[in-house]
Amino acid sequence: MSTPNRVYIARLAGVAVFDPNGDQVGRIRDAVARVRPTQRPPEVVGLVAEMPMRRRIFLSINRITSIDPDAVVLGSGTLNLRRFEKRPNELLVLQELLDRRVQLDTGQAGSVVDVAMESSRGGEWALTRVAVREQTSRLARRGHLHQVEWDRVRGLGGIADNRGTANLLAVLEDMRPADLANALQDLPDARRNEVAAALDDERLADVLGELPEHDQVEILAALDRERAADVLEEMDPDDAADLLNELPPPEQDVLLDLMEPDEATPVRQLLRYASGTAGSVMTSEPVILPPDATVAEALARIREPQLSPAVAAQVFVTRAPLTTPTGRYLGMVHFQALLREPPADLLGGIVVNDIDPLRPTTPLPEITRRMATYDLVAMPVVDRSMRLVGAVTVDDVLDHSLPRDWRDRDAMATAPAADEETLDGGNG
């Protein structure tokens, strides 16, 4: 692999980072440039990479041996794993420049769609060229794209007050919800809310479920109430109930009234349960089938892509009706059992009911103990009439067992962690 003399930074977003042994250590999320007091373009001092467990670290540009559209490769040495913190004289190129409204020296207004960094003969990298798309009132076509020298663009210095979100969303669109939530936490509050509001309802619902409670509440409060209700409808009922629990009761009632009745009903039911109980952490929409359903039908049901792995790991078998609260609970069938049985066999013949189900009032420590004892990823929750009202999954348990601020990047930054990792390139 060779490193080109000029690299457009937006094209690096999401590119994998490899150590000298060829092992992936993270993905590129941004570039860091140092603003100089003179009129010279900012110097690129490194890249920001996202590691496992959402830790963002700084990669010095001097440690990078190769850059291409598919990979960034590090040289041997020591990798600093401390969480990246931007310094006052530094600029995050994608976060702060992408979509910035600027003006060319010809007087033409436009917005930044990409920025190129270029290396000198001495090995120094600097921001040298800017891709700017003209503003146009013509609806039938996009404005002309100019690629011009850094010093031909006005408005790159100082704080951008009026940036759009389209290009930033394009950079973020392929991220997993958890990674996108992580990226949103790095943005200023106003920018974060702007980007969140530009996501479609389903995407925003997924992202909200991965954010700390205070960020969820602030983003929801920035939306108009009708839009907020639409987003809550797209969330899993247990996640929506958790979010609504963070709001004052009058605001809960307003949003629930704005939701479609079919979507609001399971959320209202979950809100009735005391915090820290099975009823408060369960999902009210597990996979439920009747005893006369076949193994083939069950396998088809758990293959539905919108199901989380924990929910899809087992089928709960009940009498009609099949929506919670169901008819009498009969037992459950794990997906591994489904794989071992003939497709035409009925679930009623292979159902397992030798583990007592949970009650809505079962406390979280007891749920954790029983799931660990029986090596389960989900347990049924039934009422006094043995009707299935939901299921507690292992991700529900983890979500409510970890510290309340475990999703908060600032809190994570204070957690003890290894600070360095040696990259020896196989020469050690």
TrEMBL record:
GO cellular component term of the entry, any: membrane
Swiss-Prot/TrEMBL keywords: CBS domain
Region (Disordered): 409-428
Chain ranges of the CBS domain: 282-348, 351-409
Keyword rRNA-binding: no
Compositional bias (Acidic residues): 418-428
Pfam families: CBS (PF00571), MgtE_N (PF03448), SH3_actinomycetes (PF26205)
The organism's place on the tree of life at top rank: Bacteria
An example Gene Ontology molecular-function term: magnesium ion transmembrane transporter activity
Protein name as annotated: Mg/Co/Ni transporter MgtE (Contains CBS domain)
